[in-house]
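Appendix B. Raw example, untouched.
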Amino acid sequence: MKTTALALMFGCAAACAAASAQQTPPPPSAPAQIGQPASHDPYFTSTAAKSTSYMPRVIIRNIREDCAGNIWFSTFGGPIRYDGKEFTNFAEEVGLPSRRIFSLLEDRSGALWFGSITGGASRYDGKSFKNFTAAQGLGNNDVLWIFEDRDANIWFATGNGVSRYDGKAMTNFTTKDGLIDNSVYSIAQDASGRIWFGTQGGICSYDGKEFSNFADKAGRSFVNIRSIAIERSGAIWFGGQEGAFRYDGKSLETFTVNEGLLDNFVGSMIVDRSGNIWMGHPDGGGGGGASRYDGKSFKHFTRKEGLGSATVYCMLEDKAGNIWFGSADAGACRYDGKTFTNFSVIPPQPSPAQVGPK
């Protein structure tokens, strides 16, 4: 894509209408999309072509929609953008080639942030990129989540605590500062401004001065919290290897297979425009897929219903109200409320790197 086109994509307010993408993708002509590892990173999988009409079958860890309606995917083959017609790999443009891209954010200025495993993070404004690594003050080069708070600070969940970037400098927080665990997976902010962190060791929050362990208030411990979602009411949901938890500010509810969940491992969560809670299950042993909770009961989505994979790693609701699912072994699919469109039609290529909730 030419530089002028990239600038228009990010800078033109008129382009911020959602792109229309209703057609079913045609069968691919190439037989395979997964190549041999292209770097020292053993999990990296290259894509066969820069642009294709179908989603390469690579591991997808996050999905976001930009202001122009493009759908972006964080994949183990680099960042991939879907413009309604083609899937294009932007690894070189954003300065993170040959990396496992784990996290993704569009900030309020329209710039895109990408977090990788082993390569730190990159900020891309449509024209050029800037890299952030441990050498530039980032807490760790494994960036699992990126979040912008209401003051426009950018937070990075890393393998060594969290880093906060104010546009000029990084401030790092670890267990030495009160964080409960240095392996951080998710970040969110509630209406009061408190920042919440899901970590390997549980849940904690930060009020701008000090950290609080949520276990002390909840009266129970937590482990391996992978996702956080906040309802319009202000209730906060947490998901991890022990199910899902809803906290309304006073009491805690627990949801497992006993309460209707499809699987006890909840790796991702979103709240849709109708207030439904969607939970992605990365096949933690119960079969995998997705659960939707309407406040009263659960509905399950599996391959039987048309879901492309039983290993759901991430989800997104786009501006049109479609739900997107990213998987470990079957690329991406989209649900319009009635039917699924699978964008990766190549038969799965099983490998140890593509199985289970990593």
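End of appendix B.
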